[in-house]
Specification:
By secondary structure, the protein is an alpha/beta fold. It has 8 helices and 10 strands. The radius of gyration is 20 Å and the shape is globular. The N and C termini lie far apart (70 Å).
C-alpha cells in the first residue's frame, strides 16, 4: 500500500514533536521544578541494597541518557540514582535550549544550574534520603556544576567529578573545593594535558581542604588514557566508582597526590600546595 506524501510528512512531524524517550534509564519519570521556573525532566530509581543515591549530572550537549550504562550498573549494585536533564538540555527546554545561553558571565544560565541540583536534592529529601547519603556525580560540564553546587548544599556526603576543569562556561570548580569537606573522587584523562593538569590542581585544593578538616585520605584521584567525560566513565571507571561508592575514601593517599614541596601562603587564601613540575605552568592561570 502506498503512503501519500502529505500523510508521511505529517506523521514525521508528529514524531518529531514528541519528547525523547527515557526508556534507556530504568526508573520513574519525574519532573523537578526549580526556583526560577525550569521544569526539569528526570528519572528516579530508589536504592535497594545500598543507602546511597547518586545525582547524575551530564556533560554539555548531552542529556540524562548518557548515563544509561552507568545507571544500569548502579541499579544492579543496589544504589539509587536521580538522573536529570540540566536546564536547556534534553527534555528540560521549557525556557530555551543551552545553545542560546550566554557562554560567559557569573550569572549566565550555566552558573544557575546549581539550582537544578537544589531541586534534585529537595526531591530526594522528600523521598526520605538524607543528604549525607547523596552523591553528586558529574561529567564534564556536569562535574563543574556538581562542584559549584556543594557551596549551596555542603551537607552532601560525597562528590565525584569526571574530567572536571577549572572553568567551563564560567562555572568554576576551585572556589568550591576550598570549602567542601566531604569525600571527593576526581577522574581525569592523562591523554589531555590541559584537563589533566587542571584536575590535578582541583585535587590538591580538595586534599588540603579535607586535610585541614581532619579527613586525610578522603580524596581519591583516578586516571585513564584516551577518553573523556561519559566515554571515560563507561570504559574505564565503573568498577572503581562502584567500589568508591561502597567506601568513599581510600586508606592512604598515593605519593603523587601531594607534591613534595613546602606549602606556600597566598594572602587572603587557604594554604595551597606548591605546584609539581608538570603543574607549575598551569597554576597561575587557575589560582590567580
Amino acid at each position: 500500500m502506498k503512503v501519500k506524501p502529505f500523510l508521511l510528512a505529517g506523521a514525521l512531524a508528529v514524531l518529531g514533536s514528541l519528547p525523547l524517550s527515557s526508556a534507556e534509564l530504568d526508573g520513574q519519570a519525574v519532573t523537578l521544578d526549580t526556583s526560577d521556573g525550569w521544569a526539569l525532566s528526570a528519572v528516579y530509581k530508589a536504592p535497594k541494597e545500598q543507602t546511597r543515591t547518586v545525582i547524575l549530572l551530564h556533560d554539555l550537549g548531552k542529556d540524562k541518557t548518557a548515563f544509561s550504562k552507568f545507571a544500569s550498573s548502579l541499579g544492579r549494585a543496589g544504589f539509587g540514582y536521580l538522573a536529570l536533564d540540566l536546564r536547556g538540555h534534553g527534555q528540560s527546554v521549557n525556557q530555551g535550549e543551552y545553545s542560546s545561553f550566554a557562554r560567559e558571565g557569573l550569572d549566565n544560565e550555566f552558573n544557575k544550574m546549581p539550582r537544578d541540583v537544589d531541586a534534585a536534592v529537595s526531591y530526594l529529601q522528600k523521598k526520605g534520603v538524607d543528604p549525607q547519603d547523596m552523591v553528586l556525580l558529574g561529567a564534564g560540564l556536569g562535574a563543574n556544576v556538581a562542584a559549584k553546587s556543594v557551596t549551596l548544599t555542603p551537607d552532601i556526603g560525597s562528590l565525584a567529578l569526571i574530567t572536571p576543569t577549572a572553568n567551563t562556561r564560567d562555572v568554576l570548580t576551585i572556589p568550591a573545593m576550598r570549602l567542601y569537606k566531604g569525600n571527593v573522587l576526581i577522574a581525569a584523562s592523562a591523554d589531555d594535558k590541559k584537563t589533566f593538569l587542571e584536575a590535578s590542581v582541583i585535587r590538591n585544593v580538595a586534599y588540603l581542604t579535607a586535610d585541614n578538616a581532619g579527613k586525610e585520605g578522603s580524596i581519591t584521584f583516578l586516571t585513564a588514557y584516551d577518553l573523556m567525560s561519559h566515554e571515560m566513565l563507561d570504559k574505564y571507571l565503573i568498577p572503581s566508582l562502584l567500589q568508591w561508592l561502597e567506601v568513599p575514601s581510600r586508606p592512604e593517599v598515593k605519593p603523587d597526590a601531594v607534591p613534595e614541596t613546602t606549602p606556600e601562603t597566598v594572602p587572603g587564601e587557604v594554604f595551597l600546595v606548591g605546584p609539581s613540575a608538570t603543574e607549575e605552568a598551569l597554576v597561575p592561570s587557575v589560582l590567580e
